[in-house]
Amino acid sequence: MVDARPRGNRDGSDRRDRHRDRCPAADRTMEGQRRMRFFLADAKTGRNLIPITATGGRWEVRRNRAGDTVCTIPLSNKEHRRLNLYETATPGATILGIGEGSWIAEAGPIWEHDFDEDRQELVLTAEGMWSMLMRRYVLPPAVETTSLLLTSGDDSGKPNPAVATSFTGKSWPFIVRTLLQQGMSRTGGALPLVFGPDGTGAHDKTYDAASFKTQGEALLDLTELENGPEIDLRPRYTADGLGIEVLVRVGDDAKLQLSSVGDPHVFDFSVPKRTVRGLKVKRSAKMLASEAWASGGRQAAIALIARAASSVLLEAGFPRMESLSSAHSTVTEQATLDAYAAGELSASQKAHEWWSFETNIDKVPKLGSFWLGDYCNVIMRNSSYVPDGTYRRRIAAISGSLSSRWVRITTDEAVDA
User: Fold this and answer.
1) HSE value, Cβ hemisphere, 13 Å, CA-based, for 342
2) Dist CA 262 CA 256 (whole Å)
3) What CATH number belongs to 265-284+352-413?
4) Considering the domain 141-250, what is its CATH architecture?
5) Inter-residue contact 183 to 215 (CB < 8 Å)
6) How far apart are CA 60 and CA 63, in angstroms?
7) pTM confidence score
8) What stretches of 218-320 adopt beta strand conformation (E)?
9) What is the pLDDT of residues 41-93, one digit of tens each?
10) Strands 50-52 and 389-401: what pairing?
């Protein structure tokens, strides 16, 4: 079992060992139950693990998005003060994580400190590693010495192709890995990211430096393509147990969706002794559309318009509804914009439906056995709203708190891809 114990300060000293040894209850509640625990790590290397004893906290992970983590730390005793969290938990330079045993729920950069002198309490707020990618642009090292715009000729003022990041006939995992490694190759760009295989696929993508697309936005755009991949940044301990790393998982043309291998998890609301509770159902028709438009071309000073249409809703008796997206205004290729419009339309053909419920993570399926993207069967009987049956769903988000052995799972409909 991996334990998030400090391996010395950043200067190599070990003055925090006493704090580590005197906090054996960090992973147990007052009732003697198991408890998840927080830890700190260096944002660039993932090393220098430091366990944190907290009085409260919460975490959430979301599919194709950054999660978030909040940790409340009492500073009313000398042991906590010796950690010098003002420096050892520096915002932007330190990772806050939470996990149990060898499993990590979420880990990402700390962005905010909130200290209350009267309460002697410090609150750390962090987001998943995706949040760091939202602060890095798709820019090759050459931008430091080469103009982002052409400065002469008929094309003066247009994006300079010499600093564009282009891919021809490459798989989605290859494109994602190259984008992230490009940022990691720049001065100070190191991150504890590791990558899986490149997989299969042949796709073309170009990012003009002058568009200033963030890496996070670029990844999000890929997931929103009609046949785009799912992307997951999953934290885990390193093989030696002395640090953490973030595995970048990307779907490819053989399997666009990311999920665990095996049978779907079962969450049963029909049995007398349930290990699930608190079902909530939300249905929304706000995104319905039988015609989707998308606009682009802003960066290249041209006008691009894409349209996708379907008669499915009209034939089902719905009134005509339309949508317009300008979220991809920097797109300069018509085929790319067409793909985004098709993706918008595909997601608008039926009302969106989210189910959420709590499951006890000490019961089957246990903590660490389920993850984002996994399929599950939710069995319903005698509900006042949901008809009896077994419903196939996919996990879209997971959240929990330090004080409870119940976590909330949010699911959406399972659509094979």
Assistant:
1) 10
2) 17
3) 2.40.30
4) 3-Layer(bab) Sandwich (3.55)
5) yes
6) 10
7) 0.85
8) 231-237, 244-250, 265-268, 276-284, 291-296, 304-309
9) 999 999 999 999 999 999 999 999 899 999 999 998 777 888 999 999 999 99
10) unpaired
